[in-house]
């Protein structure tokens, strides 16, 4: 009977299971008969994953909300306690603790001042008695949450937006029946200052602005500078149609929107976007695509846009012809001008572009009222001007004030604002091979923040025009002119003249009468905020390389006065940075000489004189002018100066100019100094061993950097930032020291010139660095280059031979009687190597002294660098790939309109509340997989370590797998010391607190004795320009980190450095009487190998030396340890000191967990690359606005007193001693050279200066291991006394 009952139950259960349905979530609705099928479905179900992601995000937001409520409760308690303090007491003495629920949480509060807290204990107790604080919140297990402390110097400050503009204070209404007499009030200035944010930044407006785009800026919008947040849609739209117009249905519309956006390649990302935006859309129906043809639908869209443009003129493309005047060379009554037509000039109307942009969605983020950004780093310190954005520059403020003083239009009381125009132009090749090219002109609006404007994906780049090339048939015109008697030289000069005329003719078409009227009288526009304003266009900057600047300024290329901004003579260019040079720049600004140009054109066009004839040269040569009318000067006379607008160009002038020339000559020096090219081979090998850094900050170098094949500007930037350790020791002394000092000055100047946020202090430093760089360059030319007979590089020799061969072939008469000479011309000429000297007579070197003035006038260089235009070329090249290569420019313009219109409609779609909530914050990435942890991109947290448990490790396995490895010695005790110190809220001082007893360590229990290894540590940090960046560290690559040094006092190191050997998390339980939280906690920690500072080595800007560190020897018990990830500032870039070589003495173990798996020894020392990026440089320099000022210390403050006194450094004798200075430099810069004269030419301490760096690095007072590196982590008293008593033996970083 029992057996039958069991069978019946089994049958019923089988029947139940068979009838049971396993359902997915409600929004999906799919049902399955078994759990396995449901699991397979949910792994692929996008709806389920989206719902899971939303649920997880909701939980995170709830957790943040709970944390905010806890902070508010703590602040309320602090307010109640501060009210009970006696008069005169500091209310900031008692700081409430921030209650945290986990040790791994990164938001920690600051320690209170113990003295002030002791002074107010009684008052606080009384206040607490009267106003009892609420009971502390509990964890999920019912226990009290513990309070985690971190010293103030380790606090992580999140970026903060500007303080809103204060509301106007209205006068109180007067009571009484008496009549109020009218009064006349003269308002001289209505200056408004905002409050300071937590970084000490505030604004000063000339008057109250009507619109502030930053008023609603949230902190989250500053957290991801790499993210382009979609602008809030404008209530005003230039597009009167809604989707799916002009297509038949939404299915076709969505498919065409996908086709006309994104990449043209079939990448995995594009397929994912196709599925997400088209196929899975609610309004997509495959049946509606029956008979679909993409080419026909594109033509439909183009026709609809053309019909709309006919009804209402807009900012579309116009095809036109350009006409230039070609001088015929005829004299007398014969006409001296022939009109040459150049077709296919595609352009847009600037006025219409201003209207559509200011009324569009992007204008929501436009700044209409300029302001001064000021910085007050401390309550008692002075205010400093901050230079960053164009709309906060002196040029904009001056233009705004002039506009407000301008007489108003009759009957118009509208607010008058400026549309800041910024132009870029540069010819580019559209393919790697072939002759296809384009010459675009781009328009950007300076009203938009540079952080958005500089991103190619932001849509801020407006294509204004495509300048056509001069057709080859113009050679036929030249051959016909003057009976074909023009010489080859005259034809070349005539072709150059036609190119100048072409550029001016193009701008003559762009500067239409409507634009000129708007320039003086404004345009009435209903802006994006719905307010009608009168907008006045103003041209501020024009970014271009030097050949383009020459065409725009109408001056001669590398003429007698080659600068487009001043009239400094070419022979004086090498005096850059001298006082006389700066005086000349200021006194002799370039202008437009209309009378001289008109007279020269009379000679060329009416008297038949050649463009470069003697009569023309006598008029124009003294000022490097050309016989071409400048359209800007003619049409905007007195209102705009094109010479001032031609701003500096860091990419072409320095990275591809000055430094490239220096680097190239250094290669020549290596060939000359070490015959056989062994030094160059060593250089290439060293560069290959330089580690990369960041995602693409420093990339791996190519096989042979000395050949410089296909290197872009960013490659030369990487070479500059890594050159100092690589070149060390390759040249004999004293030239080695001179070269390293020059490279340091170049890197220092480059870092300062490229800052995104300058203050008056950093601009003063840039000015001093410019003077110093000019001095070093002249000293390098006279002292080092003159000592070697340098020859052409192999690549230069081959290029010269090719040029010579082409020149001979072009000049050879191809008639029948000269075939022999033609064949001889085609033979390769003799490859005799010629000498090559270092040249400072270049415009690019001269331009370096204009950077400080330009930054003060227009803001920082990243706002108008030509790199922005170079990045915009990528869009054109991508559009070119979509064409059929016939009439490519015309097809490019059509593709540009399609993508622009679809992008504008996409912004309108984002107005939907649900979609906006998903894309509002910068850390909500739209292209991430649904199952990815949202905390990966949550930049509000200090760091992120995955909670993955895919790689578990037994705690005892480390010592078992590496039994005799110093890296794993005392692994478990050190780990428990580290965890216990954090659980007991012990302040970090660099020591693992080895004074814990075994009984105390036993109170820390690691659940299941397992720790979980993960691949990466992501650290978010606030940059000097108050943005948020992220570094990703991996124990296999990019494993070096930096932490704030807990040392204090004179000579203390500013930072400590460590190599991450592993990233772990574990579940930890703390028991015992001292436990503050008895629940299981997830704790994160890093296993690190510490670096120590080099003994006897001095670094700093005055010495022009990078900080030098090395691994702490394994004999030191602090060589390996554990680190709290919340203490990591960011990653760092360490370059091996190649000249010191490698050694196994620092870690006496062949295969160790402390090294990479394929390494058996270590580099003896490393250099800290302080120039790896702008933020790193500012951390060492000091004065970064976004950095914690309370813990900042200037890099040179770490140097000893002897150096600050201006005396010679014995280690730097080989830099430029015995090198005489120029006589004019000594005469002009006598004041600047007084402090450094002994360093440049003194010889009193010649014997002391012979001390070599390697001898200092291995001083006699080194530690017991015999290495030259000390452990900053050792708190032994005797060691400390030995370490700090002698400044010469202590290497401060």
TrEMBL record:
GO molecular function, one term: zinc ion binding
Residue spans of biased composition, Acidic residues class: 1220-1234, 1273-1293
Coiled-coil residue spans: none
Swiss-Prot/TrEMBL keywords: Metal-binding, Signal, Zinc, Zinc-finger
UniProt-listed PROSITE patterns: ZINC_FINGER_C2H2_2
Signal peptide positions on this chain: 1-18
Basic and acidic residues biased stretches: 892-917, 1192-1207, 1235-1252
Keyword ATP-binding set for record: no
One Pfam family it belongs to: Plavaka
Biased composition (Low complexity): 115-132, 815-826, 1259-1272
Superkingdom: Eukaryota
Domain C2H2-type: 22-51
Keyword match Magnesium: no
Region of interest called Disordered, as start-end residue ranges on this chain: 53-145, 791-833, 891-936, 1192-1293
Name listed for the protein in its UniProt record: C2H2-type domain-containing protein
């Amino acid at each position: 009977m029992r057996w039958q009952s069991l069978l019946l139950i089994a049958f019923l259960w089988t029947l139940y299971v068979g009838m049971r349905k396993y359902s997915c979530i409600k929004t999906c609705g799919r049902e399955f008969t078994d759990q396995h099928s449901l699991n397979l479905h949910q792994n692929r179900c996008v709806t389920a994953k989206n719902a899971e992601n939303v649920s997880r995000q909701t939980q995170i937001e709830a957790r943040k909300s709970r944390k905010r409520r806890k902070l508010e409760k703590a602040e309320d308690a602090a307010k109640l306690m501060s009210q009970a303090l006696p008069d005169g007491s500091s209310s900031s003495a008692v700081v409430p603790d921030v209650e945290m629920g986990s040790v791994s949480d990164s938001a920690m509060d600051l320690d209170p001042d113990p003295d002030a807290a002791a002074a107010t204990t009684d008052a606080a107790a009384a206040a607490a008695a009267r106003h009892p604080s609420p009971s502390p919140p509990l964890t999920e297990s019912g226990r009290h949450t513990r309070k985690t402390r971190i010293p103030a110097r380790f606090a992580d400050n999140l970026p903060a937006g500007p303080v809103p503009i204060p509301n106007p204070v209205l006068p109180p209404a007067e009571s009484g029946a008496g009549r109020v007499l009218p009064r006349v009030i003269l308002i001289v200035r209505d200056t408004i200052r905002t409050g300071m944010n937590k970084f000490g930044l505030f604004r000063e407006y000339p008057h109250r602005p009507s619109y502030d785009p930053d008023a609603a800026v949230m902190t989250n919008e500053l957290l991801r500078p790499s993210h382009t947040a979609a602008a809030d849609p404008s209530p005003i739209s230039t597009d009167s149609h809604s989707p799916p117009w002009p297509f038949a249905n939404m299915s076709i519309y969505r498919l065409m929107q996908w086709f006309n956006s994104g990449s043209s390649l079939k990448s995995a990302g594009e397929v994912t976007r196709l599925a997400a935006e088209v196929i899975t859309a609610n309004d997509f129906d495959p049946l509606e695509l029956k008979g679909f043809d993409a080419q026909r639908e594109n033509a439909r869209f183009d026709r609809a846009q053309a019909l709309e443009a006919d009804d209402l003129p807009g900012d579309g493309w116009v095809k036109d012809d350009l006409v230039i005047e070609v001088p015929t060379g005829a004299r007398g009554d014969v006409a001296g001008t022939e009109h040459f037509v150049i077709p296919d000039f595609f352009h847009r109307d600037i006025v219409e572009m201003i209207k559509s942009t200011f009324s569009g969605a992007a204008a929501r983020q436009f700044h209409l009222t300029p302001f001064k950004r000021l910085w007050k780093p401390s309550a008692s310190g002075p205010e400093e001007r901050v230079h960053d954005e164009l709309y906060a520059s002196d040029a904009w403020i001056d233009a705004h004030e002039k506009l407000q003083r301008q007489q108003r239009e009759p009957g118009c009381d509208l607010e008058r604002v400026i549309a800041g125009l910024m132009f870029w132009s540069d010819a580019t090749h559209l393919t790697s091979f072939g002759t296809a090219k384009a010459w675009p002109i781009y328009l950007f609006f300076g009203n938009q923040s540079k952080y958005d404007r500089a991103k190619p994906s932001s849509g801020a780049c407006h294509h204004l025009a495509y300048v056509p090339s001069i057709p080859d048939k113009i050679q036929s015109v030249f051959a016909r002119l003057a009976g074909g008697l023009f010489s080859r030289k005259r034809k070349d000069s005539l072709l150059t003249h036609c190119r100048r005329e072409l550029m001016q003719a193009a701008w003559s078409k762009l500067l239409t009468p409507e634009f000129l009227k708007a320039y003086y009288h404004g345009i009435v526009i209903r802006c994006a905020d719905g307010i009608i304003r009168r907008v006045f266009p103003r041209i501020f900057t024009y970014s271009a390389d030097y050949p383009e600047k020459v065409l725009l300024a109408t001056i001669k290329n590398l003429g007698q006065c080659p600068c487009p901004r001043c009239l400094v003579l070419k022979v004086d260019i090498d005096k850059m940075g001298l006082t006389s040079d700066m005086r000349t720049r200021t006194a002799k600004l370039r202008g437009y000489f209309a009378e001289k140009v008109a007279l020269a054109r009379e000679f060329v066009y009416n008297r038949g004189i050649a463009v470069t004839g003697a009569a023309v040269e006598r008029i124009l040569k003294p000022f490097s002018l050309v016989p071409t009318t400048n359209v800007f000067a003619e049409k905007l006379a007195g209102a705009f100066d094109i010479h001032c607008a031609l701003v500096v160009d860091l990419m072409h002038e320095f990275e591809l100019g000055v430094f490239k020339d220096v680097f190239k000559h250094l290669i020549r020096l290596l060939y000359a100094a070490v015959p056989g090219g062994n030094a160059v081979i060593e250089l290439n090998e060293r560069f290959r061993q330089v580690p990369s850094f960041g995602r693409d900050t420093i990339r791996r170098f190519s096989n042979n950097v000395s050949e410089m094949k296909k290197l872009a500007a960013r490659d030369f930037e990487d070479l500059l930032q890594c050159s100092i350790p690589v070149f060390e020791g390759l040249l004999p002394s004293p030239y080695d020291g001179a070269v390293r000092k020059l490279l340091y000055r170049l890197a220092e100047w480059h870092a300062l010139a490229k800052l995104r946020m300058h203050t008056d202090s950093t601009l003063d430093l840039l000015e001093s660095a410019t003077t110093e760089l000019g001095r070093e360059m002249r000293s390098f030319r006279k002292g080092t280059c003159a000592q070697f007979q340098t020859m052409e590089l192999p690549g230069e020799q081959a290029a010269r031979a090719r040029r010579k061969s082409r020149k001979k072939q072009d000049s050879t008469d191809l008639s029948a009687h000269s075939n022999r000479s033609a064949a001889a011309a085609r033979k390769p000429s003799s490859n005799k190597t010629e000498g090559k000297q270092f040249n400072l007579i270049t415009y690019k070197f001269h331009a370096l002294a204009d950077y400080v003035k330009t930054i003060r006038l227009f803001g920082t260089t990243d706002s108008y660098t030509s790199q922005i235009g170079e990045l915009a070329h990528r869009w054109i090249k991508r559009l070119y790939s979509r064409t059929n290569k016939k009439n490519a420019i015309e097809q490019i313009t059509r593709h540009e309109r399609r993508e622009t219109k679809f992008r504008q409609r996409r912004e309108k779609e984002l107005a939907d509340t649900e979609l906006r909530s998903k894309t509002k914050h910068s850390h909500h990435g739209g292209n991430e997989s649904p199952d990815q942890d949202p905390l990966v991109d949550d930049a509000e947290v200090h760091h992120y370590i995955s909670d993955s448990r895919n790689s578990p490790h037994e705690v005892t396995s480390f010592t078992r797998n590496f039994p005799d490895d110093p890296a794993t010695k005392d692994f478990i005790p050190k780990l428990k010391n580290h965890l216990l110190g954090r659980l007991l809220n012990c302040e970090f001082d660099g020591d693992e607190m080895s004074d814990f007893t075994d009984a105390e360590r036993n109170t820390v229990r690691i659940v299941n004795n397992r720790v979980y290894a993960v691949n990466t540590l992501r650290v978010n940090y606030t940059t000097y320009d108050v943005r948020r960046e992220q570094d990703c560290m991996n124990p296999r690559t990019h494993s070096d980190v930096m932490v704030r040094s807990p040392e204090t006092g004179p000579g203390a190191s500013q930072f400590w450095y460590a190599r991450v050997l592993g990233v772990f998390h574990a579940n930890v339980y703390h028991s015992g009487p001292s436990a503050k939280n008895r629940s299981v906690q997830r704790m994160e920690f890093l296993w690190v190998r510490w670096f120590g500072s080099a003994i006897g080595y001095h670094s700093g800007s005055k010495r022009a030396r990078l900080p030098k560190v090395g691994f702490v020897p394994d004999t030191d018990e602090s060589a390996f340890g554990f680190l709290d990830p919340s203490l990591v500032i960011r990653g760092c870039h360490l370059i091996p000191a190649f000249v010191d070589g490698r050694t196994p003495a620092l870690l006496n173990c062949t295969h160790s967990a402390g090294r990479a798996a394929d390494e058996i020894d270590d580099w003896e020392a490393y250099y800290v690359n302080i120039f790896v990026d702008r933020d790193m440089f500012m951390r060492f320099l000091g004065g970064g606005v976004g950095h914690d000022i309370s813990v900042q210390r200037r890099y040179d403050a770490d140097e000893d007193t002897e150096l600050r006194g201006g005396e010679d450094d014995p280690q730097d004798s080989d830099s430029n001693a015995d090198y005489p200075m120029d006589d004019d430099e000594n005469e002009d810069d006598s004041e600047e050279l007084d402090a450094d004269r002994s360093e440049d030419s003194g010889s009193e301490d010649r014997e002391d200066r012979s001390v070599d760096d390697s001898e200092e690095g291995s001083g006699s007072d080194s530690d017991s291991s015999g290495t030259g590196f000390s452990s900053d982590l050792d708190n032994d008293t005797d060691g400390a006394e030995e370490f700090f008593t002698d400044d010469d033996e202590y290497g401060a970083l």
